[in-house]
Amino acid sequence: MIESVTLEEVLNLAKKLSPMDRIRLIEQITPQIKRDLLVTAPEPYKSLRDIWQEDTQDITEIPK
């Protein structure tokens, strides 16, 4: 069973590590954080002008 750990507990444990081990911890966890951010990254925002232009291709055209 996976035990839940709080950020505070992790920080307290990290403070007990040597400076070199803290660096190693950061080096090992950074790639996973980057992967997680790529998976959950939202789509880039479109400007209102772009959205409006997509919906109204030719505003001067009269429908038949």
Can you tell me about this structure?
- The mean pLDDT is 83.
- It is elongated, with a radius of gyration of 24 Å.
- It contains three helices and no strands.
- The protein starts with 6 loop residues before the first helix and ends in a 9-residue tail after the last helix.
- It has one domain.
- The chain is mostly helical and 64 residues long.
What would you call the structural class? mainly alpha
Q: What's the β-strand tally? A: 0
Q: Give the ordered list of helices and strands.
A: HHH
Report the helical percentage: 55-70%
In this structure, how is the largest beta sheet organized? Answer: none
Strand content range? under 5%
Mean pLDDT: 83
Task: Provide a short characterization of the protein structure.
With 64 residues, this protein is an all-alpha fold. It has three helices and no strands.
Describe the SSE topology.
Elements: H1 7-15, H2 19-40, H3 48-55
Please name the defining characteristics of this protein.
single chain, 64 residues, mainly alpha, 3 helices, elongated
